[in-house]
Amino acid sequence: MQATKPPSPSKRPVNLSLDAQLVERAKALGMNVSGTVEALLAAEVERVYWQRWNDDNREAIAHYNARVAREGLPLVRHRSFARGVSDEA
User: Fold this and answer.
1) Quick check: 20 pLDDT over 70?
2) Residues 71-84: what's their mean pLDDT?
């Protein structure tokens, strides 16, 4: 009998229901199913986080953009690297 390695402290075992044929195809291709699911989940969590952040802050962003359109960028006169690109000081 082969001993199983306990999960690392930062990992947690979870139960997923995945299409059996899909899992078999992935294994046949030599894919690490857990690693693939983890990477895809991380990307989706990041996407949803920023989507919600943008939704939650939409009004503040719109107000800031309107202010920049009306008054220009704050401190633009101190941006010596952008002379000639934006408004001159």
Assistant:
1) yes
2) 78
Rounded CA separation 71/56 (Å): 25
| 45 DSSP assignment | H
Q: How confident is the model at residue 89 (pLDDT cuts 50, 70, 90)?
A: very low
Conformational region of residue 72, where left means phi above 0, alpha means psi within -120 to 50, and beta covers everything else? left
Question: Using alpha carbons only, how large is the chain's radius of gyration in Å?
Answer: 25
State the pTM of this model: 0.64
Give phi and psi for 84, each to the nearest 5: 90, -20
Dig out the tokens for 52 from the structure. 């919600």
Interatomic CA distance for residues 67 and 81, integer angstroms: 23
Question: Is 73 a residue whose pLDDT tops 90?
Answer: no
As beta bridge partners, residue 83 has 86
Provide the CA 8 distance to its chain's centre, in angstroms: 24
